[in-house]
Amino acid sequence: MNGSSTASGITVTGTGSASGTPDLLTFSLAVETTAADLAEAYRRTADAAGWLLAALHREGLAGGDTATSGIRLRPETVWHEGGRQETTGYTASADFAVTVRVLEQASGVLEAAVAAAGDALRVGGISYGFSDPASLAAAAREAAWRDARGKAGQLAGLAGRALGAVVRIEEAAGGAPVPLHAVREAALPAGAMPVAPGPAEVPARLTVTWAWGPDRADGP
């Protein structure tokens, strides 16, 4: 039990969580091509990026859900004996942060991206989230408060003291949703890449300080 006591009061830390099934999916897509000269690599990547975005928009994704997150240009080099460096070509890439708000569409979105960009496509990490994280955070915070209040009440009782007013509350920065083990099943057409979020927990942590209340009256 986390807690500390001083002459003026008691401080305890309470933890809590609230769980739900994520309803947002975010992943990173990129297109990348290499050519003998920089202008050609840039043109090929620009074409592939246009095809990719057009396909994503046909799948119903809004413009704000397909945000450009990076553009990179770099030479491709090889080293030879004696330390001589040779440029063999140039690579251009464009990165996009893609948000899918209807999870049942996720597999179709990925298939459309593969079909549009072909060998130029790169797929990055996937993360899940909630469209209304505030309600889960509030529920987790309430659970953390109950935990802190219960600890403080128990410790005060053991010490023969009464709790007074709350004089300080500190909330730890909220963390990302923590995946649980269960996985939601979904019916998929043959050949579709399964994208199945399981339930996740939103944690909360509160550190609360109570002043001591009036001394308890002695019993008869």
From TrEMBL:
<protein>
    <submittedName>
        <fullName>SIMPL domain-containing protein</fullName>
    </submittedName>
</protein>
<dbReference type="GO" id="GO:0006974">
    <property type="term" value="P:DNA damage response"/>
</dbReference>
<dbReference type="Pfam" id="PF04402">
    <property type="entry name" value="SIMPL"/>
</dbReference>
<dbReference type="InterPro" id="IPR052022">
    <property type="entry name" value="26kDa_periplasmic_antigen"/>
</dbReference>
<dbReference type="InterPro" id="IPR007497">
    <property type="entry name" value="SIMPL/DUF541"/>
</dbReference>
